[in-house]
Design brief:
CATH superfamily of chain A: CheC-like
Radius of gyration of chain A: 15 Å
Largest sheet of chain B: 5 strands, parallel
CATH class of chain A: Alpha Beta
CATH superfamily of chain B: Response regulator
CATH topology of chain B: Rossmann fold
Helix content of chain B: 40-55%
Number of strands of chain A: 10
Oligomer: heterodimer
Strand content of chain B: 15-25%
CATH architecture of chain B: 3-Layer(aba) Sandwich
CATH class of chain B: Alpha Beta
Chain lengths: 154, 119
C-alpha cells in the first residue's frame, strides 16, 4: 500500500480525535506480520472497493475509557457497553473520514458496520500483512490503528 | 410546539448523543431505531417531523431506508448523519430526497441549524 493510504488514514484518525479535544502524535508505521498480538479492545471495520480488507483499532481499557470520556464531555466512564459503543463509533468516524479523504484522491471505498472484540491475549490473523500506525494521545495513552488490505486498482 | 424527531443509527452511543443534543435544543425525540428496516417501520407508526438517518447500518442501510420512508411519505424530512462524507454518497442521498447531510463527528450548532431550517 502506498503512502497516500497511510497519510489518509492518519489524517482521518487525527481529524476525529482532535474534534473531541484529544491531542495526537503519530509515530512511525510498523509492518505487522500475521498473526500478531493485539490489545484488550479491538474494533474491526471491513473495507471494500479499490482496497479490500479490514481496518482495526487496538487499544487497552485505560485508553478506551479516556477516549469515551472525551466523547461524552469529560464524564467519568467505565468499560461498559456504552463505552464500547463510543469506541466503535469513534472507529467508524475515523475510517469514514479517511474514506472521504481518499475519495478526493480517486480511491473509492465503502465500509461495513464496526464489530467490537474484547478479551485477553488476543491474536489477529489476516490474509495479508498489516500496517500499524501508532498514536500517542494527550502525551499519555497509546492507540494503534492497523490496516490490512490489498489494493485492487493501480 | 417542539419538532418531533426519529433517530435512526446502529450505534447506541450515537443515538444517546443525538438525543441529548436535540433535547437540549428544544426538539422532542419520539423514537429511535438501530437499523434501516426498523427505521422505516417506526416512521410509519410515529410520523415524526424529521428523521436523522445514519448510512452504514446492518439489515438495511440508510439510503434504502430513506427510499422506504419516501415511498410511505414523499414529504418526509430526512437528514443524513453519517461518518462518510464522500461526494457520491452525498449526491445519492440528495437524489433520493434527503434534505440535509451532516458528517460525523457532529457539530451541535450545525445540527440544530440544519434541522431548524427544515421545520
Amino acid at each position: 500500500m502506498g503512502n497516500k493510504y497511510i497519510d489518509s488514514f492518519t489524517e482521518g484518525c487525527q481529524l476525529v480525535l482532535e474534534q473531541f479535544g484529544i491531542k495526537t502524535e503519530s509515530g512511525s508505521v510498523v509492518l505487522r506480520k500475521s498473526p500478531f498480538g493485539a490489545s484488550a479492545t479491538i474494533v474491526v471495520i471491513g473495507i471494500v472497493g479499490d482496497l479490500h480488507g479490514q481496518c482495526m483499532l487496538s487499544i487497552e481499557e485505560d485508553t478506551a475509557c479516556f477516549i469515551a470520556s472525551k466523547m461524552m464531555g469529560d464524564m467519568d466512564v467505565v468499560m461498559d457497553e456504552v463505552t464500547k459503543s463510543a469506541i466503535a463509533e469513534l472507529t467508524n468516524m475515523m475510517v469514514g473520514n479517511a474514506v472521504t479523504i481518499l475519495s478526493q484522491k480517486n480511491v473509492m471505498l465503502d465500509i461495513t458496520p464496526p464489530s467490537v472484540l474484547t478479551g485477553n491475549n488476543i491474536h489477529i490473523s489476516t490474509s495479508s500483512a498489516s500496517l500499524s500506525i501508532p498514536f500517542l494521545l494527550d502525551g499519555k495513552y497509546n492507540m494503534e490503528f492497523c490496516i490490512s488490505a490489498k489494493e485492487l486498482k493501480q | 410546539m417542539a419538532a418531533r424527531v426519529l433517530i435512526v443509527d446502529d450505534a447506541a452511543f450515537m443515538r444517546a448523543s443525538l438525543k441529548m443534543m436535540l433535547e437540549r435544543n428544544g426538539f422532542e425525540v419520539v423514537g429511535e431505531a438501530d437499523n434501516g428496516e426498523a427505521g422505516v417501520k417506526k416512521y410509519e407508526q410515529l410520523r415524526p417531523d424529521i428523521v436523522t438517518m445514519d448510512i452504514t447500518m446492518p439489515k438495511m442501510d440508510g439510503i434504502k431506508a430513506l427510499q422506504g420512508i419516501k415511498a410511505i411519505d414523499k414529504n418526509a424530512n430526512i437528514v443524513v448523519v453519517s461518518a462518510l462524507g464522500k461526494e457520491d454518497l452525498v449526491r445519492e442521498a440528495i437524489i433520493h430526497g434527503a434534505k440535509g447531510f451532516i458528517v460525523k463527528p457532529i457539530n451541535e450548532e450545525h445540527l440544530v441549524k440544519t434541522l431548524n431550517k427544515i421545520v
